[in-house]
Amino acid sequence: MTPNRRGKHKIFIGMSPGVGKTYKMLEEGHRLLSEGVDVVIGLLETHNREETANKAIGLELIPRQQVPWQGITLPEMDTKAILARQPQLVLVDELAHTNVPGSEREKRYQDVEVILAAGIDVYSTVNIQHIESLNDTVAKITGVIVRERIPDRILEAADEIIVVDVTPETLQERLKDGKIYAPDKIDQSLNNFFQRHHLIALRELALREIADNIDAEGIEEESPQNNFYNVQERVLVCVSTYPNSLQLLRRGARICTYMHGQLYVLFVEDPDRFLTKSETLHIENCQRLCQDFKGEFIRVREYNIAKAITQTAQKHRITQIVMGESQKSRWQMLLKGSLTQTILRQLKNVDIHIISTSDRP
Predict the structure, then answer these.
(1) pTM above 0.85?
(2) Residues 119-159: pLDDT tens digits?
(3) Alpha-carbon distance 194 to 222, whole Å?
(4) 316-342 confidence digits (pLDDT tens)
(5) N or C: which end of the chain has fewer CB within 10 A?
(6) Which CATH superfamily is domain 234-355 in?
(7) Per-residue model confidence as pLDDT tens digits over 263-296
(8) Contact in structure between 40 and 89 (CB atoms under 8 Å)
C-alpha cells in the first residue's frame, strides 16, 4: 500500500565527531515520545560514550540484523523490521555509513530513503566532512580523505537541518576528558584531525553550508518562477580521462551551489580513439557524480576541444566554465596556443575558472 505522504527528514549535522549530534537527536526523540509520538531507534552508534548510551535509555531499539560476510556475521540496521514496526519516527545514526557487502542496499542513506518513502519520519546524523561536494575541501583542510560520503541531494531534500555547534576549544576539552575516543587515541587525535585550526575551518564549513541551504530555500519561496532573478548562473565543468576530473567536478558543483545555478558537465571524446576499460569506468563515475549533483552530463565526439566547449556553452547559455589547469608544457602552449585563451576569444560574458588540482581522484 502506498503511503499518503512521504516521511519528513531532519538531519543533525556537525563539524566533527563528538559535538553532540547523536545526543541531541536522542534528546529530541525523548521529547517527542513524551508528547505521544511513536519513536524508535533504528540505528545507534554510542562509540562507548557513556552519556550517549544513557540518553538512549527509555527509547525502543529495533534490533540489528546480522549480515553474513566472508565467514562472519556483521550487524546492520534492519530496515525491513523498521518498516514492519511502522513507527511515526525513527532515529538513525551515521547517515554516511557504508553497509556490509551483501546488504540489500549499499549505503545507509539509501535505507533512509526507503523508510521515508514508506511515510515514516526520520531523524539522522552526519558530519560535514561526509558531504560529497566538500570532500576535496575537507581533504585540503585536514589531510584526511573521507571515503564514506552522502550526495548533496540528501541534504538539499531534507525538511530541516540542525547544526549542532560547539567551539573548537570545547571539543578539544571533551576529547581530553575521554568523552569522544578511548584514552590511547587522544594524543594522536589532538595532533591530527582535532587540531584547533582544522576544527575552526570545519566549523565554518558546517555553518556556511546550512546558511547556503537557507538562502536557497528563501530564493525559491520568494521567487518560485525565478522572475526576480533575471539570469540564472549556468556552470559548465569540463572533465577528461584524467583522474583529477572528479575533484574538478566537486569544485564546480560547489561554485554552482554558491551561485544557486544549474550544473552541466562536458566530456569531449576523440572520435579516433577508443577509451580503455579504466577510462570508461572513470567517465561513468563522473556521470554518476554529476547526477548526484542534479547536473546534466553531456558527451560530445569532436576533434576540436575548444570548438566543442564553445558550442556547448552557447547552446546551454553557460555563464561560468570550470576547467583544470593545462596538462601541456609551457613550450607546447606557446606553439599551439592556450585552450583557455581560444575559448575566451570565442565566448563573451563567460567567466572561466582554472582550478589547480592534484592527481588524487
Answers:
(1) no
(2) 999 999 999 989 998 888 888 888 888 889 999 999 889 99
(3) 40
(4) 889 889 988 765 544 444 444 467 778
(5) N
(6) HUPs (3.40.50.620)
(7) 999 999 999 989 999 999 999 999 999 999 999 9
(8) yes
- What type of residue is 141? I
Among candidate residues 138, 160, 213, 140, the one with its CA nearest the CA of residue 7: 160
**What distance in Å separates the CA atoms of residue 139 and residue 331, rounded to the nearest whole number?**
33
What are the angstrom distances between the C-alpha of 274 and each of 50, 242, 270, 278?
Answer: 57, 15, 8, 12
Spell out a b/e string for 212-225, using b for 16 or more CB atoms within 10 Å of the CB, else e: bbeeeeeeeeeeee
Map residue 268 onto helix, strand or coil: strand
Cell matching residue 125: 546524523
150 DSSP assignment: B
User: H-helix or E-strand containing 318?
Assistant: none
Q: Quick one: which of 24, 33, 55, 29 has its CA closest to 42?
A: 29
- CATH classification of 9-219, choosing from 2.60.40.10, 3.40.50.300, 3.40.50.150, 3.55.40.20? 3.40.50.300
